[in-house]
Write a structure and sequence with these properties.
This protein is α/β, with parallel strands linked by helices. The chain has 15 helices and twelve strands. The two termini are 34 Å apart. Bound molecules: pyridoxal-5'-phosphate. The site of pyridoxal-5'-phosphate has 17 residues, from α5.
Length: 412
């Protein structure tokens, strides 16, 4: 991405006159409002990881002192994650990230045979880590029901209940959507899953560390989270598995993680995840006050200065994400133009960008194709400042004015 921006700037340099100093200044002042795609790793997180790449390199399964030190670090991290989730340490399984956790949860329940059946209920707005896993499961004999959402972006628990069959073995509904930030009524859905003795999974990749999660309130049997969304390293995550849940491991080849996920533990990354979880727990109040305040400021300034803006989805919403559609705008073109001016945002999830398919999430909410195509996602974090927010609005306003002038499209 770095190189991509420089290349475009250099190209632009030839044609429209950015000087070298302007290029450097854009690079230095870039504003990152794409924290749902990934976050900047905290310096404290990196510091905590470094010894485990160097002197403390042991295998956490080894019996000697090197192994014991690594084991101690992994268990400390497990404690921090358990504290963040309000869970027991024995319920925490380290994985390679949110995608693996989602895969492991779905396959792990489907193959466990904890009750007869092959039917899974999910929603139309899940992350591809769920939707594509459901497609694989269908090829393996599962039947999947995809529950719709309403125009506010919420799943109706009664629609989930209506989808339940004798053969239902799992309900999986994401905790908050990665494109809109809309929070789903998980407690209600979990309660009805419990009444029918069906296991419940939630993808909490966007919510863990953003809003308080108390597993006993949420009540789910399985939950996925990822470190890189909370200023931790990429390629490490967690699958929470409630005590007593029948689960067949997705990864086999050793007795690691209490036989629930085989493979030598990625000690430095797990340590980084532990530190990130500890920091996220400490910063929860700030997320729900300062970051939420920044998002409000951003959104209301945009609504004040830019005409033809629509907010996609309704509260309850995460404190750091908003999704807006702008009349007479091509979202993809806007992302590139904004990037040139030093503002990093996205049109939807990082996994979907690069494909020209319109957002399946906004489409499921019933938005017209032109409204879907003109949407941008803005996602904030602790590192953002009021000054950045105000500058982001200015950049957005001037880029949009320019793009709208150029737009020959007839928007209905
Ligand atoms: C809701 C959701 N689930 C799953 C994932 C995948 O997580 P990871 O990148 O750790 O594999 C993401 C990442 O964007 C996400 O937003």
């Amino acid at each position: 991405m770095h190189r991509y921006v420089i290349l475009i700037c250099v190209k632009k340099n030839a044609s429209s006159g950015y000087g070298q100093s302007e290029i450097i200044s854009i690079m230095e002042q870039r504003i990152y409002l794409d924290n749902s795609a990934t976050t900047r790793m905290d310096a404290t997180v990196l510091e905590s990881m470094l010894p485990y790449f160097r002197e403390d390199f042991g295998n956490a399964s080894s019996v000697h002192i090197f192994g014991q030190e690594a084991r101690g670090a992994v268990e400390n991290a497990r404690r921090s994650v358990a504290d963040l989730l309000g869970a027991d340490t024995k319920e925490i399984v380290f994985t390679s990230g949110g995608t693996e956790s989602d895969n492991a949860a779905l396959w792990g329940v489907f193959r466990s045979g904890y009750r007869p059946g092959n039917h899974i209920i999910t929603t139309k707005i899940e992350h591809p880590a769920i939707l594509e896993t459901c497609s694989s499961l269908e090829r393996a004999g599962a039947e999947i029901s995809y529950v719709p959402v309403d125009s506010t972006g919420r799943v109706d628990p009664s629609a989930v209940e209506d989808a339940i069959r004798e053969s239902t073995v799992l309900i999986t509904v994401m905790h908050a959507n990665n494109e809109t930030g809309i929070i789903q009524p998980i407690e209600e859905i979990t309660a009805l899953a419990g009444r029918h003795n069906i296991l419940m999974h939630t993808d909490a990749v966007q919510t863990a560390g953003k809003i308080p999660l108390a597993m006993h309130n949420l009540g789910v049997d399985l939950l996925s989270m990822s470190a890189h969304k909370i200023h931790g390293p990429k390629g490490v995550g967690v699958l929470y598995i409630r005590k007593g849940t029948k689960f067949t491991p997705f990864m086999t080849g050793g007795s690691h993680e209490r036989k629930r996920r085989a493979g030598t533990e990625n000690v430095p990354s797990i340590v980084g995840l532990g530190t990130a979880a500890r920091l996220a727990l400490q910063r929860l109040p700030e997320m729900n006050s300062r970051v939420a305040g920044l998002l409000d400021r951003f959104q209301s300034k945009i609504l004040d200065v830019i005409p033809g803006v629509r907010i996609n989805g309704h509260a309850p919403r995460l404190p750091n994400i908003t999704n807006l559609s702008f009349e007479r705008l091509e979202g993809e073109a806007a992302v590139i133009a904004l990037d040139l001016e030093g503002l990093a945002v996205s049109t939807g999830s990082a996994c979907a960008s690069g494909s020209l398919d319109p957002s399946h999430v906004l489409t499921a909410m019933g938005l017209r194709p032109d409204v879907v195509q003109s949407s941008l996602r803005f996602s904030l974090c602790y590192h953002n400042t009021e000054e950045e927010i105000d500058r982001a609005v200015q950049i957005l306003e001037s880029v949009l004015r320019r793009l709208r002038k150029l737009s020959k499209k007839n928007w209905g």
